[in-house]
Design brief:
With 319 residues, the protein is of the alpha+beta class. The chain is built from 7 helices and 20 strands. Strands 1, 13, 14, 15, 16, 17, 18, 19 and 20 form a 9-stranded antiparallel beta sheet that branches. Strands 2-3-4-11-6-9 form a 6-stranded antiparallel beta sheet, with no helix packed on it. Strands 8-7-10 form a 3-stranded antiparallel beta sheet, with no helix packed on it. The chain starts with 5 loop residues before the first strand and ends with a strand.
């Protein structure tokens, strides 16, 4: 039986809008600059995570699934997703505004791209003064008006904007327009999909001076045009977001305290440490595994009696 977690080498991605906070947040020394993303756990082809410590060092996430199957993923997850992995975990550091985007749902992505759609969520870790999150429409528009507003650069006038603060959560079902504003460092939990339709990019140019590609027509049919009163997620106890794709909980555990990590699902558990330095305890085997800020661990489904020892703030994720 699997009785220990897996730690993976992060894939650090330098991008035009990236900042300099991810490496120090994770305690990594690197000469790489403008790091906008750290892919903590990924089964996306071309960027499949590799175990970087312990007995399985050098194995990919896909190879772990092939070897351990339901022991790693849980029976329902294995039957639904294998040989892939259902979730992609990232850290994102936006030094500049990211483009305004929307993602297709499973039906549309399957029809167009033969892959899953993308529902995701953000949990804000750090913010600079003036940082904003953009999510959803603040007034009703039609698909025709959407295209007109993209063309005349007024689309931002109808997108809801929020001043962001550490601890804020935004749940972003497929179809919801969204963008990360400059100054946000956040954790992103999403379906394993790399399909993005770029709606608007502030008329920015690429390194050759050309406008960045927009996917105006593709996005038209992917957008949910429903207007909601508030797009911020309201935590229900420890639960930040729960949907058919993931259940995400936050635990803030002071020094000297031990708290159970409870989830309702037969699933692996991903632990993302946002602050502090503590441990994750397997209460059945009476073994513990250290964890510190910036680390992500994947616990197999066979480890069901997990507890966390402070001082830490963690996100606990299941599928």
């Amino acid at each position: 039986m699997l009785n220990r977690p897996f730690h993976f080498a992060p894939f650090l991605k330098s991008v035009i809008w990236g900042g300099e906070r991810i490496a120090p947040f994770k305690g990594i020394k690197t000469s790489q600059t403008s790091i906008g993303e750290s892919w903590e756990l990924s089964a996306v082809p071309g960027h499949v995570s590799v175990v970087d410590r312990g007995p399985c060092e050098g194995m990919t996430l896909t190879e772990l699934i092939e070897k351990y199957g339901p022991e790693l993923m849980g029976v329902a997850n294995y039957e639904r997703y294998a040989p892939s992995f259902p979730l992609l975990i990232k850290l994102i550091d936006a030094k500049a505004d990211l483009s305004v985007q929307v993602h297709p749902d499973d039906e549309l992505a399957g029809k167009r791209h033969n892959c899953p759609g993308k529902t995701e969520m953000w949990n804000v870790i750090e913010t600079a003064p003036g940082a904003k999150i953009y999510a959803g429409l603040k007034e009703q528009i039609t698909p025709d008006e959407y295209e007109r507003r993209v063309a005349d650069n007024s689309i931002m006038d109808v997108i809801a904007a929020y001043d962001s603060a550490p601890g804020d959560t935004f749940f972003l079902p497929a179809g919801r327009i969204h963008a990360i504003g400059a100054g946000n460092l956040l954790a992103e939990i999403q379906q394993t999909s790399d399909i993005t339709y770029r709606i608007y990019d502030y008329d920015r140019r690429d390194k050759d001076g050309n406008p960045r590609e927009l996917h105006t027509a593709q996005a038209r049919d992917a957008i949910d045009y429903t207007v909601y009163p508030d797009y911020r997620a309201t935590p229900q106890g420890t639960v930040l977001a729960s949907c058919e794709y993931f259940d995400v909980r936050r635990l803030d555990v002071p020094a000297g305290k031990t708290v159970s990590i409870d989830h309702p699902r037969d699933s692996f558990t991903i632990i993302i440490c946002l602050e502090g330095e503590g441990a994750i305890l397997d209460a059945e085997a009476m073994t513990s595994f250290p964890i510190r800020r910036g680390e992500t661990l994947l616990f197999p489904a066979t480890m069901t009696a997990l507890r966390t020892i402070g001082p830490v703030s963690i996100l606990s994720v299941q599928s």
